[in-house]
Amino acid sequence: MHDVHNGESARPRRAVFMVNPKARQGDSCVAAVRGVLERGGIEIDAAPLESAENLSDMIRRRAGTCDLVVIGGGDGTLNSAAKGLFDTGVPLGVIPLGTANDFARTLGIPADPVAAARLIVGGTPRLVDLGEVNGHPFLNVASIGFSADLARELSGAAKKKWGKLGYAITAARILLQSRLFTAYIEHDGTIETVRTLQASVGNGRHYGGGMTVAQDATADDGTLDFYSLEVDHWWKLLLLAPSLREGTQSRWNEVRAFRTTEVVIRTRRPRAVNTDGELTTWTPAHFTIRPAAIRVYAPATPPGRAFASSRRFSPRTS
């Protein structure tokens, strides 16, 4: 794609540049980001996201005429592009413009949009895993229970106006109303029956605007990290909060945690599944991992790698 002939310099890279107009950090920095990309030798083909065309369909349609896709938006926007990126193999450049930007944090992509653009100009794409539940891809975490209820209640308008404060206010209200539900967890030849507030399956490291799936989780370890919050009082979840942020929740007796490559969650009645902040499917939920599925411009050493040799916690048997 970038050959040099007869001493001539390689042709510019061509990028499809898509920005979510509803992203929390939208218009203010788009011109600066575009300037960095163009000065770095990237030819821009702007594609508006207001159209009714599915984002993954747009990527598939333009894959033959571009060298990379640059997306400005949050985790929901990136999630909607995941299938198209997987199908085409076109590398992704991320400009974090959302509320939480958990995928960018997982990969160590700078939070500053202009710095993220510089990384795309000078960086090299690396392979990243993709989680999947009932055929729907997810980059960060898929959850059933409390976080799905939160996703249903937290409107896009509230996220844009209040940011992370919107998460906290809505989460507190829903937490007071939440009740445990019965789930049947099938993995690695076993079936466990649990009463849980939330069951989560992580592909990456961060989710929910600051939570951590597991202390040593990365987005390229080829595995899924599961945990179930089996707390019977809301105040216990407050005690757990620091561990949920650090990714050390598996040390608590009220948390069932394990690492796997496939898990099925069944419930007595259908429950919504939250994938990267969007409700996309229902239980029964079949989770799998697609290792090294997409290419993303990101630093070579992701956060969490330093924990790769630390002790993992086995599934509880009680």
UniProtKB/TrEMBL annotation:
InterPro entries: ATP-NAD_kinase_N, Diacylglycerol/lipid_kinase, Diacylglycerol_kinase_cat_dom, Lipid_Phosphate_FormReg, NAD/diacylglycerol_kinase_sf, YegS/DAGK_C. GO terms for molecular function: ATP binding; kinase activity. It comes from the Bacteria. One of its GO terms (biological process) is phospholipid biosynthetic process. SUPFAM superfamilies: NAD kinase/diacylglycerol kinase-like (SSF111331). Residues 10-137 form the DAGKc domain. It holds the Pfam family DAGK_cat. SMART domains: DAGKc. Keywords: ATP-binding, Kinase, Nucleotide-binding, Transferase. PANTHER family: SPHINGOSINE KINASE, SPHINGOSINE KINASE RELATED PROTEIN. This is YegS/Rv2252/BmrU family lipid kinase.
